[in-house]
Amino acid sequence: MTVTNDSLNRQLDVREDHWCFGCGQENPIGLKLTFFEQPDGSVYADWTPQRVHQGYEGIAHGGIISTVLDEVMGWSTYVRKIWAVTGTLTIRYRKPVAIGEATRARAWVESVNGRKVEIKAELRRINDDLLLADASSIFIKVSEEQAANWQGRYISDSAAE
After folding, report:
1. At residue 49, what are phi and psi to the nearest 5 degrees?
2. This prediction's pTM
3. N or C: which end of the chain has fewer CB within 10 A?
């Protein structure tokens, strides 16, 4: 993965007025991630772990890393006009994620088969592109009714099609 300039990618129009732990701006302890779609259809979010995200001294907690990857995977389905929830998530932690070091989480849809959506993701350190963790998951599409509800709740009116 090559680190890219945000201005070359489309920021997703995620509403900020909700409490999602990953992307909601109203959650005082949330991650407040911002997502960008790349020309290849993948989605990324930059994240710098803070002390409150710590597990062992100086490194991010694996559960928080999992949350970041799960969140970017979820938004990778949205750019394909799919609303889905996590069914399975497998993560490989390859290197410690240091507190205070900028990272980029990136995800892409590998395949869609009926309600099943297979997704891959990775977390890399921005300054040298070192792979810190990678993940694979199966997301399950929600009903059309639920998808419409979430579209209205989480996507900015300016992005509605």
Report:
1. -65, 135
2. 0.87
3. C
pLDDT digits (tens, 9 = 90+) for 75-129: 999 999 999 999 999 999 999 999 999 999 999 999 999 999 999 999 999 999 9
What is the distance, to the nearest Å, from the Cα of residue 48 to the centroid of all Cα atoms in its chain?
A: 14
> What is the torsional sign of CA 127, 132, 136, 141?
negative
**CB of 151 within 8 A of CB of 131?**
no
